[in-house]
Specification:
Elements: H1 2-19, H2 23-44
């Protein structure tokens, strides 16, 4: 579980650093990261 969370956070950080050119882009990236974390948590149940 920690490995998956670590990978998710790393991927999120990479997305935020490379793809966020506007405030709208930040919102989309944060939403995508939240969806990924939620899916990972559901899969771990």
């Amino acid at each position: 579980m920690r490995k998956i969370l670590g990978l998710t956070l790393t991927a999120t950080a990479a997305l935020l650093l490379t793809a966020c050119n506007t405030v709208e882009g930040v919102g989309k990236d944060v939403r995508s990261a939240g969806d990924t974390v939620a899916k990972t948590a559901d899969d771990a149940k």
